[in-house]
Amino acid sequence: MSFVFTHSNHIANLDSATLTLFQDQVYWEKDILQDLASDWKTIEYLLPSFDPEGSSWKRTGFPTKIKYILFKFNSKSAPLTGSFEIRNAHLIRAMQKTRA
User: Fold this and answer.
1) Cβ–Cβ contacts within 10 Å for residue 32, how many?
2) Which of 74, 58, 73, 72 shows the shortest CA–CA distance to 26?
3) 85: Cβ–Cβ under 8 A, 6 or more apart, which residues?
């Protein structure tokens, strides 16, 4: 299963960007700064339990469902300015192979 979204990033002074998938007080979190683009770009992230490189997600607690999603942007040097646009955000469940 994966989370897919299309975005356009025009935030200035951006030092960090994370995507957090929450289930109440427990969550999965991923650094997404390197994946952001100024032109419209679609990104697909495998969810932690389906990611062979699951270490790219940090976990707090034991989340089993996604109740809400947070994009978080930070700057250490100056106030953030600009915009982050997102569209077509959705979850994709991979089709399971059938036996012949």
Assistant:
1) 20
2) 58
3) 7, 8, 10
Residue in the structure block whose two tokens are 């994709």: 92
Q: Where are the domains of the chain?
A: 2-92
Tokens of 97: 């192979």
Residues 6+ apart with CB under 8 A from 32: 17, 18, 19, 43, 45, 71
pLDDT digits (tens, 9 = 90+) for 53-99: 656 889 898 888 899 999 999 999 899 999 999 999 988 886 554 45
Cα–Cα distance, 13 to 4 (Å, whole number): 25
Nearest one of 29, 5, 17 to 80, comparing CA atoms:
17
Scanning the structure block, which residue is given the tokens 């569209």? 87
Residues in the chain: 100
Per-residue confidence (pLDDT) for residue 98, from 0 to 100: 46
Gap between the Cα atoms of 68 and 61, Å rounded: 16
